[in-house]
Amino acid sequence: MADDRPWLAAYPEGVPADITVPTQALTANLHNSIKRFPDRIALDFLGATTTYAQLGDQVARAAEALRKLKVKPGDRVALILPNCPQHVVAFYAVLRLGAVVVEHNPLYTADELAHQLEDHGAEVAICWEKVATTIAGKVTTIVAVDLTAALPLVKRLALKLPLPPARKMRAEMRGPLPDGALRWEALVAAAEPIAETTKGPAVDDIALLQYTGGTSGTPKGAILTHKNLAANAEQSRVWVPGLRDGGETFYAVLPLFHAYGLTLCLTTAVQIAATIVLLPRFDAKMVLDAAKRRPPTFFPGVPPMYDRLATAARDHKADLSSVRYAISGAMPLPAKIVETWEALTAGLLIEGYGMTETSPITVGNPMSERRRTGSIGVPFPSTRVRIADRDDLDRDMPLGEPGEMLLQGPQVFSGYWNLPEETAAVLLPGGWIRTGDIAVMSDDGFLSIVDRIKELIITGGFNVYPSEVEDVLRKHPDVDDVAVVGLPSERTGEEVVAVVVAAEGASVDAEAVLRWARERLSGYKAPRRIEVTDELPRSQIGKVLRRQVRDDLLDRE
Questions:
Q1: Which of 51, 184, 199, 357 could crosslink 145 through cysteines, CB 3.0-4.6 Å?
Q2: β-bridge mates for residue 252, sequence order
């Protein structure tokens, strides 16, 4: 009803209050796009192209290859890949079998990957060659992907030249394989397309396990069904009524292994038969070079990407006027970046909000002049929001008063993998999920995040959970205790800073501790600096008060 959803007045013309919740598995979206636009370019990887018909054929062959490896419905299959065509093919091939995709960051350390692989128990992992030796012994079957196989022919030939640049690029893209590892390209090439009569998934089947720290630092597998993912793709599609089926070009600079990149650059893009320009990492020059070849129309990203890209475009007098829509998430979007980007592109840049447990998008600014810079926007179609009293979640706060934001909708997950207690802590009766964020709703339904219950750090669009970093630093022989916090950074939104207490009789060498941390944590998780203190502030029950640690650091700056 409109009277309890004041935000509906902000919806642009053509955006429905509710979506038709999907009744078919996510694989139906790919099938429909292949049928409607077989000759449309589906994937562009550094100039090498794949049509939707070719993508469908590769998915069918990959699914059969995985079936012959004994992958069955419900089995978990680990994907540890950067953005590349093989990632897209593997994702849909696993789903075609009714199996479950588990996405992993290929830059994770051996310990980080080992924890997740043990937790979900996948027996098959499809991984980048450079990760293969890292996970050796952690899964039964390793299927290694050669990124260079997806390059245009001229670039593949250039890599064979006995020149320093070619050797350097080969070293960056390729890696040794452990004994027994299989080659993805050979498996797919040798397979016949899977029989059409092979049973596929149902809409309520699990499609994806996406690891997240939730409201704590221990990584947990969020269970997302085909319905969750297909619903969020549909919500994202209708949120931008100007999108043209078979007529858009999405830039996948966000990693597909991240929930944000997966939904916008993979599932939503495939649903509307968009061309997906895959970039293995964000690099402003790489984006501008691609834009000359295949101009983008839809560009999801995070604020630092827009800032760096706008600067590079101005410096090189590059044309980005083809970008009609851009959606920013993962961290606050400064008004200055919006102004610069929109002046450069003449398109809209809006801010949205989501969490892994909600597939992930739940809130966004209207894709119109009604958008409101500084706000995360209004709830998506078929999404309900409550601002609840933190001390009594059954009680709603008055408009304009802060409270914990609760969400409900078809995109909300069904729980954490094998963690019923953690699930019960965030999923409430009626399908509501606790976000852990303190928000305020205006009288017209716009939402603003004012605080975080969870002391999560968001740096460069990635979540860093302080307790995970603290657990690593406490193992250093010179460190007795530590508190990890996020401090404001113009470049990445927040930077990770650790405040440590030296072990008895020890002296902390900050640079040595930093090097030690970088060897054991992914780059974005490792602290940018170490501060040393005599003691950490604690509550009456002995809990370190991270918020006070952060405030003390800010006061000193």
A1: 184
A2: 278
Q: Which residues pair with 224 in a beta bridge?
A: 208
444-468 CB burial, b ≥16 within 10 A, e <16: ebbbbbeebebbbbbbbbbbbbbeb
- Ranges assigned E (strand) in 165-205: 182-183
Q: Does domain 458-556 have CATH number 3.40.190.10?
A: no
Superfamily, domain 392-452: Luciferase; Domain 3 (2.30.38.10)
Global pTM value: 0.88
Tell me how far CA of residue 78 lies from CA of 28, 88, 170, 186, 486, in angstroms. Answer: 22, 13, 25, 19, 30
Q: 51-200 has which CATH code?
A: 3.40.50.980
Pairwise CA distance, residues 290 & 251, whole Å: 9
Name the residue ranges covered by the structural domains of the chain. 51-200, 392-452, 458-556
- What does the buried/exposed string (b/e) look like for 7-39 if buried means 16 or more CB atoms within 10 Å of the residue's CB? bbebbeeebeeebeebebbbbbbbbebbeebee
Whole-angstrom Cα distance, residue 269 to residue 286?
21
Identify the CA nearest to 12 among candidates 239, 299, 234.
239
pLDDT in tens, the chain (557 residues): 345 899 999 999 999 999 999 999 999 999 999 999 999 999 999 999 999 999 999 999 999 999 999 999 999 999 999 999 999 999 999 999 999 999 999 999 999 899 999 999 999 999 999 999 999 999 999 999 999 999 999 888 888 888 888 788 888 889 999 999 999 999 999 999 999 999 999 999 999 999 986 545 578 999 999 999 999 999 999 999 999 999 999 999 999 999 999 999 999 999 999 999 999 999 999 999 999 999 999 999 998 899 999 999 999 999 999 999 999 998 888 899 999 999 999 899 999 999 999 999 999 999 999 999 889 999 999 999 999 998 899 999 999 999 999 999 999 999 999 999 999 999 999 999 999 998 999 999 999 998 777 777 889 888 788 878 988 998 999 999 899 999 999 888 899 999 999 998 999 999 999 999 999 999 999 999 999 999 999 865 567 888 899 999 998 87
